[in-house]
Amino acid sequence: MGFNIAIDGPAGAGKSTIAKRVAKELNFVYVDTGAMYRAIALYFLKNKLNAGDEAVAAAACENINVRIAYENGEQQVLLNGENVTGQIRTEEAGNMASVTSAYKAVRERILSLQQDLARVADVVMDGRDIGTCVLPKAPLKIYLTASVKTRGERRYKELTEKGLACNLEEICKDIEDRDFRDMNRDISPLKQAEDAVLVDSSHMTIEEVTETILRHARERMAGN
Ligand code: DC
User: Fold this and answer.
1) Are 8 and 192 in contact (CB under 8 A)?
2) Distances (CA, A) of 17 to 9, 31, 56, 88, 175
3) Which of 76, 78, 138, 195 is most buried (most C-beta within 10 Å)?
C-alpha cells in the first residue's frame, strides 16, 4: 500500500490545483477521480442516453471501460480505448457526471481502478468519497471547501479569462445544484470523513492551502 492522501470537497474548491501541487512537491502520483466520472458522463452524452434512468445507466456500464495513463506526469483518461482527456472539461460533462455518478453501477465500475492505483503508488487522490469510501484507511484525509460565493467567483474568473461568456449568478446556482446532488445522493455522498482535516480555502491563497496540506502530510509521514 502506498502512502495515500485523500482530498475531498465540493466542486470548485480548488482540489485539483492543490492536489497537483502537493503531489508534485512530494513526488506522489496525482489521481483525479472526477475525470473518471466525467469520462463515463461523456459516454452518456455521446450516445444520447437517458441519464435519468438507472436501468439504462446500469446497462451502459457493461459497455464502458475507463482506464488511466500518465503522459509526461499528466493524467490521461481513456474511455473504451479513446483518450478523452481533452473532452471532459466542459460544464456539460461536469453536470452530467454529477447526475450519473449517483448510480451504484457507475460507482462500482471505477472503484477498483481507484483502489488499485493507490495500492501500487503513493498518491494524492481527489474526489468526493475518497476519504469516506475509496481509501478509508488513508493516513491523511483533507476536506477542502470554500463558500459558494468564492467558488463561483473563481469559476467566473477562469471562464472569462478563457474568453467565454458567462454569468456569475448562473455559475453560483450551478454550484449549489451540484453540491446538493453530490451531498444528498444515497451512495457515497460527499461529506467530511470523521478523521479528515477541514481546510476552508475561502480566504486563503493557493500557496497557503498547499503549504497547510504539505505540513499535515509531512507530520503524518514522519509519524508513519
Ligand atoms: O471534481 P469534478 O468536478 O471533476 O467531478 C465531477 C462530478 O463527478 C462531481 O460533481 C461528482 C462526481 N464525482 C464523484 O461522485 N465522486 C468522486 N470521487 C469524484 C467525482
Assistant:
1) yes
2) 13, 12, 34, 16, 18
3) 138
Question: What residues contact residue 109 under an 8 Å CB cut-off, 6+ apart?
Answer: 40, 61, 64, 66
Three cell numbers written together for 113: 481502478
- Alpha-carbon span 204 to 146, nearest angstrom: 9
223 C-alpha to ligand 1 centroid (Å): 31
| Residue 178 in contact with ligand 1 by CB distance below 6 A | yes
Q: Residue 143: beta bridge partners?
A: 8, 198
Helix ranges, the chain (H): 15-26, 33-46, 54-61, 91-100, 104-120, 148-161, 168-184, 206-223
- The pTM (predicted TM-score) of the whole model is 0.94
The response to whether residue 18 sits with its C-beta less than 6 Å from ligand 1 reads no
Which atom, in ligand 1's list, is nearest to the CA of 94?
6
Task: Please give the Cα distance from 176 to 184 (Å, whole number).
Answer: 12
Q: List the pLDDT tens digit at each of the 224 positions of the chain.
A: 789 999 999 998 999 999 999 999 999 999 999 999 999 999 999 999 999 999 999 999 999 999 999 999 899 999 999 999 999 999 899 999 999 999 999 999 999 999 999 999 999 999 999 999 999 999 999 999 999 999 999 999 988 998 989 999 999 999 999 999 999 999 999 999 999 999 999 999 999 999 999 999 999 999 86
> Which H or E run includes 28?
none
Cα 106 from Cα 101, distance rounded (Å): 6
